[in-house]
Amino acid sequence: MKPLLRTFLAINAVFVALLGLFFLMTPWLTVSAPLAPLASSPALIGQLLGVFLLGFAWMLLAGMVRGPASATIAWVAGHVQWLAGAVVLVWQVRYHQPAMQDDLTFIVPIVAIAIVVLGLVQARLASMVGRRERLERRRFAEGQAAARGTQRRERTAVAPPLQRDPYIGSPDASVPDAESEPRRVPPTF
Q1: How many domains does the chain divide into?
Q2: Which among 92, 103, 152, 181 is placed 20 to 30 Å from 189, CA to CA?
Q3: Residue 179 belongs to some domain of the structure
Q4: Is 65 within the bounds of a domain?
Q5: Which tens digits make up the pLDDT trace of 119-159?
C-alpha cells in the first residue's frame, strides 16, 4: 500500500509543480488572451503563490523519498489539496471567477474537481498507511517486550536467587554469645 501512496505523492508533486510554474508565469499570462483571466493582479501575488506551490511540490517529493514521513506528509497535503480544490470550485460556481471565455469555462471546474478527488484519495490512502504502520510498531513493541520477559525468566531459571541472611549484622555463630558464657565471679580475699 505504501508504494501506491508514494505513486500518488509523485503524481501530486508533478501536478502541483506545474501549477506553481503556471503561477510563476503570471506577468506573462496577460499576453495570451485565453489565459489572461487567470493572471492574478498584482503579479507579485501570483508569483508568490507559484513559489509556495513549488515548495509544496518539493515537500511532496520529500514525502515520497523519506519513508517514515510519507504517511504524515501525504495526509496533511491531501487535506490541504482537497480544501484548496473546494475553494476554487466554490469561487467558480458561485462567483464565476475567474471569468473565462465561453468555450473555456469548463476547464477550471474540471481542474478543481480533479484537485478535490486527488486530495481526498491521497488523504484516505495516507490514513490507511499510517494506521498500518502504527499497528506494525505496536506489534513490534509487544514482541520486544515478550522477548525481554522471556530472557528475564531464563536468567532467573538458570541462576537461583541469592539467599539472603535474615540476621544480617548478627554475630557469627563461631563467636559465643555474652549471655551463653558462664559468669566469672572475681575471687574475694
Answers
A1: 1
A2: 181
A3: no
A4: yes
A5: 999 999 999 999 999 999 999 999 998 888 888 887 776 65
